[in-house]
Amino acid sequence: MQAVTENAALFRHVTAEKAGLYRAILDVFATAKRQYRLQLRPDEVLVEGNWPDAAPRPEDVSAALAQLADWGNLQSQPDTSRVSSLNDFYRARFLYRLSVGGEAVETALLTFSQSLRRRAELQTVALEDIASRLSALQLLLDAGEDLDVPKVHEVLRDLVQVFEKLADNAQAFMAGVARSLELQQAEATAVATYKRRLIDYLERFLGDLVRRSDAIASMLLQIAPRINAALQQVVEREARDAAPGDELEASQERTRRWREWLDRWKGLRGWFLASDQTPPQVELLRSKARAAIPQLLNAIATINDRRSGRSDRSADFRILAGWFAACTSDEDAHRLGRAAFALNPARHFSANPRADVEVSASTPWADAPPLEINPRLREYGEMAPRGPLPKIRNRDAERGLLAEQFAEEYRQVEAARQRLATGRPTRLSELGELDTAAFSLFLGLLGEALGEQPNPDVPVERHTGDGLLLIRLEPLGVGSRAEINTPAGVFSGRDHLLTISESGLS
C-alpha cells in the first residue's frame, strides 16, 4: 500500500494548480527521450517548451523542475560542466532527466490519449492479412522435419500482431457502433450522409467477413494437428534469448512462454471456429454489425421526433411574418393571408340540395351558383325543426340473433379444442381433416409455437396468449411430410409431433 501511495505522487502534476506548465515541461522531456537526448538544462527546457500561454520566467521553470523532481517524475544531478569560478561552483545548477516512474507515466498518458482518440474500425484488410499469414504458415508446416523455425516464428509473430489489432478494434466497435451520442446532436443532413456511409461500410465488411471467415476456419482446421509441435520449437527458440538463470527458472520460463502461445492460438481458433458451448466471435461481430443499422435508424427516428415536437405558436407567427415580409406585392400577401388563415370559400357546405354541378373550392362566390339557405338556419342556427324525439327501436330480435351466433361460435371452438387439446403427442400427418373452426384454432396455436422457435430443428414449448393451453411442437425428419385437408384446401409442410394440453395438465 505504501508503494501505491508513493507512485500516486507521479500523477499529481496532472491535477496540480500549474498543470499546464508541468505538462509542457514533461512534453519537452518526452520529446528529448524520443530524440535520444538524456539530460536537459532549465534554459533548454525554456527554449524548447510549447507553453500554453506566454513563456514563463526562468525562475518559474526552475521551480517547476524542482517540484517535478520532488514528485519523482524527474531526476536531477549537479551541472558542473559550466563552472568557471568558485561562485559558479556553489550556485545551484542541475541537469534533469526523466525518471523510470516518469517514463512510465508518460507512456501511460500517451496510451490513454490514443485510446480516447481511436475510432472503432472493422478491418477487412486484417482479415486478408490473417488469411495470407495462415496460408504461409501452412506452407511452412508442410515441410515436415525440415521446418524453418525462424520463418515460422516470424509468421506467427505477424499473425498475432494482426489478430490482436483486429480483436481490439472489433471490441471497440461492438462497444459503441452507432455513435449515438454524436447522432443525437447532429443535423439531419449529416445523419443521412453518415447513414449512407455506414451502411456501405457494413455491407462491404460483412461481405468480406462471410467470404474470408470460412476460408480462415478451413485453414485453421488443417493446421491444428501440426501446430503444437511448431509452437514447441518456437518456444525453444525464444527461450534461448531469456535472461540467464538456473535450470528451474529456465524451465518455468519455457512453460510460461508455451502457455502464452497456446492461449494466442486458442484465441485465434475461438474467433473463427465454434466451441462446444460458444459460437465463434466472428458470428457475434457479424450480428453486432447487422444490429448497427437498426441502431442508426433508431437514432434518426429520435432526431425526427425531436424535430417534430410540440408546436410553438409564437415561432409559427414569426415565420409567417417573415413570409409576409418576403412577398413582392400586395396581391401575393393577400393570397398568402387567405391560405394561412383559411379565408378561401368553403364549397364543401352541403346545404344546397339543388346544386347538381360540382364547384371547385377556388371558384369565386360571384361566379358560383347561388346557395339557398334555410330561413330556420339563419334564425335558430339549426336546420332540423324541433319536436319530439324519435321512438326507441326494439332490438330484441337482433340481440337474440347475435346471441345465437356467439353460442354457435363458442360451440365450434370448444369442439375444436376438445379434438386438438388431447394432451397426447400426435403427428400432424395423423390429424386428418379439420373443419373451419378447428383449422382456425390449429393455425393460431401453430403460429404462437413457431413464433418462439429459434430455428426449424429445435423443439419448442409455450403457453398460449390466454394461458389456457400448453403447446409443444417437436420437428420430425427434414424429409417428412404432413398434409391436412380443410374446407379451404390442403395445408402441407414438414411433419411435427404436436402435443396440446390444458394448462396444469401434463
Morphology call: flat
Radius of gyration: 41 Å
Helix content: 55-70%
Low-confidence stretches: none
Helix tally equals 18
SSE sequence, one letter per element = HHHHHEHEHHHHHHHHHHHEHEEEEE
Task: Name some characteristics of this structure.
506 residues, alpha+beta, Arc Repressor Mutant, subunit A, 3 domains, four-stranded antiparallel sheet, two-stranded antiparallel ribbon, 8 strands, 59% helix, flat
Short description:
The protein is of the alpha+beta class.
Describe the structure.
- This protein is an alpha+beta fold and 506 residues long.
- It has three domains: 114 residues, Orthogonal Bundle (Arc Repressor Mutant, subunit A); 186 residues; 85 residues, no CATH class.
- Helices cover 59% and strands 8% of the residues.
- It has 18 helices and eight strands.
- The strands form three sheets. The chain has a four-stranded antiparallel β-sheet with strand order 3-8-5-4, with helices on one face. A two-stranded antiparallel ribbon has the order 1-2. It has a two-stranded antiparallel ribbon with strand order 6-7.
- Helix 8 packs antiparallel against helix 9, helix 9 packs antiparallel against helix 11 and helix 17 crosses helix 18.
- The longest helix has 52 residues.
- The two termini are 62 Å apart.
- The mean pLDDT is 76.
